[in-house]
Every structure is written in structure tokens, then in C-alpha cells.
Amino acid sequence: MNRPNLFTKTWHWLRLGARFLRTMPAVYYAVLPEIEKQATIARLNQRFGSHIHRGAVLNLEYEEDFQLAPGVMIGALSYVIVENERAGLRNSKLVVGENTRIFEQNNIRACGGEVRIGKKCLIAQQVSIIASNHLLRNGVPVQDQAWDTERSGVVIGDDVWIGCGAIILPGTSIGNGAVIAAGSVVNGEVAGNSIVAGVPARLLKMRQ
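Below the sequence we write its predicted C-alpha cells.
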């Protein structure tokens, strides 16, 4: 039996190389973004002394507008976005105080305003915190309208507990020590140490 000559061997490796190169777009789009994501999470955890789960999703236009104090935890499948509406209008920021726990499947959208969360807060699963809404002028599709900058931003004090599935709307301010019951929709001011529930959320009682 004849051994393959140099030309045959070369042609074989060239064919294998061509097949590999054809797979490169799939490798790029499937693998490289995940590598970049994990590198970003590792870098931010090291910088802040935080515990962002590798399964969280961060969409950050400017990393310097995303600020975590030491000990902050962000759970798996939570989606965090800090993004401005257009170039030249940089008014979006997320700031979280030390040892605050943001558990799984949360939705924090610091877009068109600032979201500030104090220290030692507990944010349960599937909570939405939204910094701004679209304007609602008649005759223009909502998705084409700018974000409302007059009523925007969310401020959450220290030691606040937000129950599962609660929604915190733009313009909301929650005082220190407040408790937001599961499934509540919060719009406006919540006094410190109050316990609120419902849609819209209303005062049940004060913490003793």
C-alpha cells in the first residue's frame, strides 16, 4: 500500500483548515460574547468587592455609571441595564449601598434617570425597579417617544425589604426601614419604617 505523498497530506490539512474557518462565525457569536461577559463580571467583582452571579446580565453603556459598594450581591438571571437615551444626554446611573442583596430574576432599569439603593437592603425575586417611562403624547407611537425626564429616578433607603414581584415605578422614594409587600406596585413616596402593600401600595402599619 502506497503511503500518502506530501501533496495529499497538504491538501488534507488545507481541507480541515477550511472547515474550521467556516465555523468561526458561529464560535465568535456563541462563545466570545460569553467570555467577554464573564470577564466583565469578574473585573467588576474584583473592583467593588461584590458578588455578581455569573448568570446575571449586565448591559452597561458606561461602567463608571454602575457603582456597587462592598458586599453587594446580584443573583442569577437578574437583568441590570444602565443606558442613556441618546448621545449627549447622560442621566442614567445605578448606585447600590454596602451589603445589599439583590436576589434572582430581578429587573433593574436605570435608564433615563438614577436608581439609588441604600445599604443592607433585601430585594427578593422578580422585582422590577424602573427609572423612567416613555412620554404619552397622542399621535406618536409610544416606542418612538422620548423618556419622561420630569418624573424619573428611584431612591431606596437603607434596610428596605422589597418582596417578590413588586414593581417600583419612576419617581418613587422609599424611606429607611420600609417594607414593600410581595406583588405591590409602588408609585410615589413611602415613609420610613412603614409596611405597604397593594396595587397601588398603601400603608398597612408601621414597624415597631
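Residues 1-48 form one domain.
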